[in-house]
Design goal:
heterodimer, A: mainly alpha, two-stranded antiparallel sheet, 74% helix, B: 531 residues, mainly alpha, 76% helix, globular
């Protein structure tokens, strides 16, 4: 048997075993779940080491219908999917282990690990899919795992609401994606990623652009791009390791991965590329501007995730498939690290997430502090950490392809360094702002710090030698020909950190100095450009109105007029017919006899 | 000819009902066991029939006995890929519905007798091939349900039962008249013969003769085309009410909401399918030209069912009413698939394959909706028994005290939502995959329904299970073993079909192709239905 099947199905087995058998034994459940993903990691490394002898396993025939059309259940093993396998199982393993510490004592411990394993299965399914239907199936399944994990603390109304919101917003994106898949089917007659490239040429350019744009809708939902980005910040209601795994490192990157997987569709269409690039650019900039006003450490990271995903999408739109995947990889390392670090802080402070209640934590939590700092520097793109290499590839690509987007990218990079610096300075430096919280603070146990160290190492070395792009594109990946430009770009994060240090070096909670300076703009940013308010208005007034309209129509128009009218007619007919009902049995018999005779006459004599 | 297995399936519950009638009124346990066992005998026989069933073999297990020679009526039974799934569904859901009422205290004897009669009617509808006794079974399905709602229903049971009865009766009257005309023209009630006559044009010719006769007698002018059209719409109405297709659905929320749990389960899972099945067995084969001619309004109605049904569900605060409206929405997908399968689309590549996907999807959707709606109505019943309320905003946080219940409800909800991995997805996806190339506008509009379906189902889940626990429910007991068993059986099918749908599709594919072939004017396909 091909090992990829084992990689894929081990987590599913773990989820099933935990749900059906080991619910009661918490540590056993955690062990089963961790074992499944660690097995996947080991096998993925094994596959990686066997470069050159990869074989996609024989696909299973899932659905066969008339005319020989088959929906396969396959597994693609190529450079793209092997890279993703490594990222998902590697980062996933670290987060699984970390969860043992973070979730200790939670009453739903087993349920948590079952959901985590279900998610891993679904995510690996997306990675391995060899056709559009299969990817859509797993696409929805990650949506469900995400729904279950965001709403993990289901008694909190905000968590239940956030889970629902995530699922529904994604569903809107999937609506477009499904439309695109169906349209692609009518044009090309296949769902298979292997067969599609040669058939794409025959599709008229306009239609192809439309198909690409529709399929991109799916990525807009899953990767939380404008205007469907609103679910991701709310998704922070889930446990922090979930935010790290699903809403930072892997699932939200699935949209980027999917676009890279179907690059053959997107690359030929200028219009779609422009759309994608700008959606990415706008998301990157917008999310970064929001992040500078947030006070919740997880929300800062969430907006930074949006912003980084924007970079990746922008890169795809600028035809940079390899840079996008490169940034996806390094981002998975340092963003998972940052979230787990934030989780370590939150854990230490007993679920305190407001950065203004922190401060001076570096003394109390040295490992968390150092690793968090590494993550911050990597995210900001400081040499020689991984983020520097991947972000520069995107920025240099933008410089070559689209000056406007390059400026957007540079401004975003500046803001990134600025808001991350702000978060770091306020949370880890300065005087403790909340004495009580500070005294409670303690370094997390080894089961949590070890994953931090592991991810910190990856965040440092992940970009060295541009190994990832070379792996993806062994021939012809132009490395940093103009490295000096990249180093010039180092001034950007430096400036960001400098400004942040200057403002927030010794800020007190009472004075948010930037707030006064920005005035009304600050309010717009703090309220996330009022997207949620507008959407809520639409849901209340448009969707609500249509729903009550349907209900009213049913109750009044159909019931009263239609059916009531019918009842009136029936009543009238009844009264008329009553005249015929004389109560005379002979009369009945006579009418009955006549009727019968007519029928028989007609049947027999005619 | 072996044992008349279809008759045995149909009448085993009838025998059971007779035995129950002979039992004393107080013998609750005995009554329940006899009812369950006789119902299960049908189920076992249905599984045996399934084992011998050849999907490519056209009509099978045919029983044909001369019954009323003077009227040219045969007792004619048979199943093919269109009806086999429905027989299985009936055999699956009815015992579960009986089991759902295992703790019934009041009127046990009458309740179980009525239920068994109901089952006879349902089996009869799915196996009959002659309008004469098909119609008898069709009406038999009506009467026990009327009493089940009226006697064991909720607050507004009188209104709801009467409305249900009148609606369905009114619907079947037009159908009866249409068949009276058909009979006068062809002296035939047999579905197979009528289908062949319709395909060969014989039916129209015979009606033409009838029309000239009528014209001669009455002196008025008639037109065969108009007559056929009127007959088609009359028949359509009869089935449209049953399905129900928007806007003929207003009986359904009332009937479902007021019916006892088992009644709602059977009503949603099986009785609605009698309407859809009517389209497959009667409307499409006997009125093919009229269906094609009226396709646009028909598709519009299907789309309206999908979209407006979903929006209406969104406005509900009654748990059961919400699930009831979801039936309108889900049956809309089935109707979309059926109408797409007969659309005339000569420009589409491999059109037969697309139509096969749509029709197979629709048939699978019938089965799937049977599973998921039965589960949802059962679960409404479970929570209603404990809380005595159906108002969604009075629940809240039930997952804390009823974790198992919440799990079963969650899975059933996702099955209804069409989540991949569970049964609902496969049917809906095939419908869309087939319908999109053939009738893109209808498929696109219906896709909106998919989003709204998700909205109201997730909202329901949130209101029932999530959020802070309403202190009134702090002491509720979780599902009992019996209740979990019912849920588990249904979940087994949700997962089974969702993960490996091939056997279900293999069951219906040949029959679907036959039906499509009729519309693609392939005479060779038409002949294969002859037993």
């Amino acid at each position: 048997m091909n090992p990829v099947w084992l990689i894929l199905f081990a987590p599913l087995g773990a989820a099933a075993v935990i749900t059906l058998v080991t619910q009661r034994w918490k540590m056993l459940s955690a062990f089963v779940s961790c074992a499944a993903i660690l097995l996947g990691f080991v096998l993925s490394v094994g596959i990686f080491l066997q470069q050159g002898q990869w074989q996609s396993p024989e696909p299973l025939r899932w659905l066969v219908l008339e005319g020989g059309w088959v929906i396969e259940f396959g597994a693609t093993v190529d450079r793209l999917s092997v890279l993703m396998l490594l990222v998902v199982t590697g980062v996933g393993s670290a987060i699984h282990i970390y969860s043992i510490g973070y979730m200790r004592g939670d009453p739903g411990f087993s349920r948590y690990f079952a959901c985590l394993s279900l998610f891993t299965f679904s995510m690996l399914g997306i990675v391995l899919s060899n056709n559009f239907i299969q990817i859509f199936i797993f696409w929805e399944l990650v949506g469900v795992s995400s729904y279950l994990l965001i709403g993990y603390w289901f008694e909190r109304p905000s968590a239940a609401e956030a889970g629902k919101k995530a699922f529904l917003v994604n569903r809107i994106g999937d609506f477009g994606m499904m439309l695109g898949i169906l349209l692609l089917w009518t044009e090309a007659g296949t769902f298979s990623f292997a067969e599609l490239p040669e058939r794409v040429a025959a599709i008229p350019a306009g239609t192809l652009g439309l198909i690409s744009a529709l399929i991109f809708c799916g990525a807009v939902g899953k990767s939380a791009q404008v205007p469907l980005h609103v679910w991701l910040p709310d998704a922070m209601e889930g446990p922090t390791p979930v935010s790290a795994l699903i809403h930072a490192a892997t699932m939200v990157a699935a949209g980027v991965y999917m676009l890279c997987r179907v690059a053959f569709l997107i690359l030929p269409s200028e219009t779609a590329l422009t759309l994608i690039a700008w959606v990415g650019g706008v998301t990157a900039l917008m999310a970064a501007t929001i992040a500078i006003t947030q006070n919740d450490i997880k929300r800062i990271l969430a907006y930074s995730t949006l912003s980084q995903l924007g970079y990746m999408i922008m890169s795809v739109g600028l035809t940079g498939i390899t840079p996008a995947m490169f940034h996806l990889t390094t981002h998975a390392f340092f963003k998972a690290l940052l979230f787990l670090g934030a989780g370590s802080v939150i854990h230490a402070l007993h679920h305190e997430q407001d950065i203004w209640k922190m401060g001076g934590l570096w003394r109390k939590m040295p490992v968390t502090f150092v690793t968090f700092l590494i993550g911050t520097l990597a995210l900001a793109g400081v040499w020689p950490l991984s983020g520097f290499y991947s972000k520069d590839e995107i920025l240099l690509l933008a410089l070559k392809e689209n000056m406007a987007l390059f400026v957007v990218g540079v401004v975003t990079a500046f803001l990134t360094a600025y808001y991350m610096g702000r978060g770091c300075f306020v949370a880890f430096f300065g005087r403790p702002r909340d004495r009580h919280a500070y005294e409670h603070a303690h370094e997390s146990p080894l089961v949590m710090t070890a994953p931090l160290v592991f991810l910190a190492i990856l965040s440092v070395i992940g970009g060295w030698g541009s190994y990832v792009p070379h792996f993806l594109q062994p021939e012809g990946h132009g490395a940093h020909h103009e490295a000096w430009k990249g180093f010039l770009l180092l001034l950007v994060p430096a400036a960001g950190f400098g400004v942040a240090a200057w403002i927030y070096g010794r800020a007190e909670p009472s004075d948010e100095p930037v707030k006064a300076a920005l005035g009304r703009l600050w309010n717009v940013l703090e309220n996330k450009y009022y997207f949620d308010e507008v959407y809520l208005w639409i849901v209340r007034n448009v969707q609500g109105a249509v729903a009550s309209g349907c209900e009213l129509f049913d109750r009044w128009a159909l019931q009263r007029l239609g059916v009531g009218g019918l009842a009136g007619v029936t009543g009238l007919a009844g009264k008329t017919l009553r005249l015929l009902q004389t109560g005379n049995v002979q009369a009945y018999a006579f009418v009955f006899g006549v009727g019968l005779t007519v029928i028989i006459f007609y049947v027999v004599v005619r | 000819m072996n044992a008349p297995i279809l008759s045995l399936i149909t009448f085993a519950p009838f025998v059971g009902a007779l035995v129950v009638l002979a039992l004393p009124k107080e013998a609750d346990r005995a009554i329940k066991w006899v009812a369950l066992v006789s119902s299960l005998i049908s189920s076992v026989l249905a599984v045996i029939a399934l084992a011998q069933f050849d999907p490519a073999g056209g009509l099978q297990f045919v029983e044909r006995v001369r019954w009323i020679p003077a009227l040219n009526v045969d007792y004619h039974l048979g199943v093919d890929g269109l009806s086999m799934g429905m027989v299985l569904l009936t055999a699956l859901i009815t015992p579960l519905a009986l089991l759902a009422h295992w703790k019934l205290i009041e009127g046990v004897k009458l309740f179980f007798v009525l239920f068994l009669f109901l089952q006879v009617g349902m089996f009869g509808v799915f196996t009959a091939l002659n309008f004469f006794h098909w119609f008898i079974f069709w009406e038999i399905g009506l009467i026990p349900m009327f009493f089940l709602i009226r006697i064991w229903g909720a607050e507004e049971r009188h209104y709801a039962s009467l409305k249900f009865f009148l609606y369905t009766l009114a619907g079947s009257l037009g159908m009866l008249l249409a068949f009276a005309f058909i009979y006068l023209a062809t002296e035939n009630f047999d579905f197979v013969a009528l289908q062949q006559q319709a395909a060969s044009g014989e039916l129209r010719r015979a009606l033409g003769v009838l029309v000239t006769d009528i014209e001669r007698v009455t002196g008025s002018e008639w037109d065969v085309g108009t007559l056929l059209n009127v007959m088609f719409w009359a028949t359509f109405l009869g089935f449209a009410i049953k399905v129900p297709i928007w806007p003929f659905h207003t009986w359904l929320p009332d009937a479902h909401t007021q019916a006892p749990t088992g009644g709602s389960m059977v009503l949603a899972a099986i009785l609605l399918k009698m309407g859809v099945y009517g389209f497959l067995r009667i409307v499409l084969p006997i009125f093919p030209d009229q269906v094609v001619a009226n396709l646009t309004p028909l598709l519009l109605l299907a789309v309206a069912s999908v979209v407006l049904g979903a929006f209406a569900a969104l406005a509900q605060n009654d748990f059961k009413r919400l699930v009831a409206y979801s039936s309108v929405n889900h049956m809309g997908y089935a109707m979309l698939g059926i109408f797409a399968a007969v659309a005339f689309a000569p420009d589409v590549k491999d059109v037969v394959n697309e139509k096969a996907a749509a029709l197979n999807g629709a048939i699978l959707q019938m089965f799937n909706h049977g599973i998921s709606s039965a589960a949802l109505f059962f679960l409404v019943g479970v929570v209603y028994e404990r809380t005595h309320t159906r108002q969604l905003d009075e629940y809240g946080g039930l997952r804390k005290v009823l974790p198992i219940y919440a799990g079963v409800l969650g899975i059933s909800m996702f099955s209804s939502l069409g989540l991949p991995g569970l049964n609902g997805f496969v049917g809906e996806f095939l419908v869309f995959k087939g319908a999109f190339p053939v009738v893109p506008w209808a498929a696109m509009l219906s896709l909106i329904g998919l989003v709204v379906t998700a909205v109201f189902l997730l909202q329901m889940m949130q209101k029932v299970c999530f959020g802070p626990l309403n202190p009134r429910w702090a002491e509720l007991p979780d599902m009992t073993g019996r209740e979990l068993f019912i849920g588990a059986v249904l979940m087994l099918f949700m997962f089974g079909i969702g993960i490996y749908p091939q056997p279900m599709l293999a069951l219906s594919n040949d029959a679907a192709l036959w039906l499509i072939g009729m519309f693609e004017q392939r005479p060779d396909a038409v002949l294969t239905m002859v037993p």
